[in-house]
Amino acid sequence: MRNRYFDKSLPDAETVLTAEDFQRAQRQRRQSDDNFVQTVPIDDSAMYNESRFEGDIVNPGLLRILPNNETDDGKVAMPGLQHNAVRQPYLKWPSAIIPYTVSQQYLLYGRDQIVQAIDEYSTKTCIKFRPKTASDMDYIHIFPDDGCYSLVGKVGGKQPVSLGDGCMSKGIIIHELMHAVGFFHEQSRTDRDNYVNIKWDNIDQNLRDQFDKYSQNMIDFLGTQYDFGSVMHYGPYAFTKNGKPTIQPKQPGKTIGQRIGFSQNDLYKINRLYACPNTPQMPPSDSSVQPVDSSALTAAANGAPTAISDRNVNNANCIDQRSDCPFLASIGNCESVFSTSFMLVHCARTCRKCGGINDNASSSSAQQCDDQLPMCRRWAANGLCELFIFQQYLLNNCALSCGGC
User: Fold this and answer.
1) Is 346 annotated as a binding residue?
2) Which intervals hold domain Peptidase M12A (predicted)?
């Protein structure tokens, strides 16, 4: 059956959306019923790729180091970053303008879907997707690769946003573009265990890191309450190993994983992050949600990551910064040359590396004192070498520019 969205036999040339594309989308919108409610669930399984960070983030720097992580075709993977909303100003798009190109491989129907998603941003936020010009060094390129994925925030250079098979619905496109705008998944919030239960028994042990959560040093909630209805929330069966739910809201009747469009919280957060004029008021909180006391969390019988409650705050060099350090250590990350720097920063106590990187790791870095990627100097100039999210990836690929040797 012929794919109506794209044709991969065509070259992946960079194009832009035209006035005709937007006019065609407007005609389709006028013909549709604005009060239509999506009743058939959208299949978002293409967003949960086991080899990518949290399914659709191109972020090898925090993936578990496995033998098959490298791609057969030698493509250079790009690092992402981990925030519900990015804090660093240089990771936001200047003036809320995101230059873009669209692959020539998209057919008219595929371009229509992309236009509809971009139009949602234009009409409901101050984010503007503008066709790339010759002077734009940083931009996103939308193309139909393998499934759905994106980077988070403005990382620099030509950033991929893949909308392949299973990704060509407006809600999924909005989701991937919201990553590019600067947002991470909703269920990665520090307080998520107050609102949802993670069903660890239904998740393969090797995929439990796909359900990480992050401290408020990494996440900016932008003052909002946990949003079950966010377009950025995992669906209930994300990464299931047995067809059973992996995430369940604590409050009965709540639905997660909608892929129709923005929630009111999504719009508020985008507009607040970019200081948009006429930012709407924060949506009212759901007073019926009663968060549980997070201090009551204890170790799960199935070995799920647990919180470390008795840290020695006076010994800054010997504490764990993450709740899942025992799990990360159990799969070899303390010893891996690829993850030593990350584990040193975040899991010093578990890895027993409170004195610094060991001599073997240092000598290994010294033997590879060069840059593997053309963007290394620029990333270093933008301060990414100091951002711990990128530290492991950049020490491996940009040792010279980042002073790793």
Assistant:
1) no
2) 84-277
